[in-house]
Amino acid sequence: VLECEITDNLFEDEIQRPLLLDGPLKKAYAIDLDSEAQGNAVETQTFLFDFLNHQNRFPIYTTFFAFEEDKDNKAFFTQHQMSFTSHVLSKQKQTDGWLRGKRTSTRESHYFTVKIEDAKMLELILEQAYAAALINELFMFSYSDRLSIQREVETTYRKTRVLEDRFIYPEETTVVIVGHDGGMLYVLSNEEHFAYDLRTDWAKRLRQQLPSDTVIR
Hints:
By secondary structure, this protein is an alpha+beta fold. The chain contains six helices and eleven strands. A hairpin with a 5-residue loop joins β10 (174-178) and β11.
């Protein structure tokens, strides 16, 4: 477990996900398996289930990239009685065109946010959607459903283009993001559960939030 240095580049350079926590971020941790299975996405997926289930805090909300807003995902949610919403993020970029100068193209990304009511739903979602994390797409959990989208735009010569869309979570929450190739986790928190407190044993407090057989170094 490594405490991340909290800088303006934390999300862009380290986490590399379209996400912001509104307000000052108190704690950010990177969790990596230190064993023969280090970087193993299957082991990380198992640990993620154990970690979230150990919190025993439901409902929890997961947001993840969908390869397309297809009927299969929606049918899966309906079959298992999961409440969900969908989001579309767009990003425009300019490319060099040798005929008429620069061209502007728009790429859309589809995401679902699903409300998870219990450990069984959590297990099903991980089986259904963890593939997004394997290809370095966004896959995250939060204890808050107050998710909004911030759109950064640029207007020149009366033309407006989208630079980037970001997911914004309120200040008082904990967000768990699956990192590179699905093989590590980032925990971002403004909640007291993960806060450093000089009056208590910080390592002991953190252990209480992890599965009971976890060894921390």
